[in-house]
């Protein structure tokens, strides 16, 4: 499962060749390969996050800096900070940046391998709602099923009906940018100003000259 997810993460990173990225991985997962010095890798640990830095929430990272944030089973641990983590992802992502989220699939028969391990699994609808509450566009979420259906060596990916029994789901969504409201055209402002001046001048002519001393 982790190998299939690593390949999926590499495809995401290939689409952002210039910007830095943040990956928060599961226990036993390896950092996806990328250009040295461009990525930041963290894990859950000590009630917070540790790795390249040790911190809690909110993350000590600049806003709108990262081209991609990769969450590999970070929210399967039932710590109850899903909303806070997704809010931070929205904050640090640059406009047009990509959030990739991998989570356990509750419908997979592979769940017997992590049953009673203190992990939780939710369907795609749960994650789409959580992403929408964090400010991501729910209608722009793409969904993929990853990993084995039952045997570990069957670690592929897909979007077909049979793939819905794979061990994990991966949701990908971009941070949309709202277009700014353009200012009013200066030509209209000039016309209004000119019209007002003409009316003032016409009024002065109707009043005639003032009393002479």
From TrEMBL:
Boundaries of every Methyltransferase type domain copy: 60-100
Keywords, in A-Z order: Methyltransferase, Transferase
Pfam families, per the entry: Methyltransf_11
GO biological process, one term: methylation
SUPFAM superfamilies: S-adenosyl-L-methionine-dependent methyltransferases
A GO molecular-function descriptor: methyltransferase activity
Domain of life of the native organism: Bacteria
InterPro entries: Methyltransf_11, SAM-dependent_MTases_sf
Official protein name in the record: Class I SAM-dependent methyltransferase
Origin species: Marilutibacter chinensis
Lineage: Bacteria, Pseudomonadati, Pseudomonadota, Gammaproteobacteria, Lysobacterales
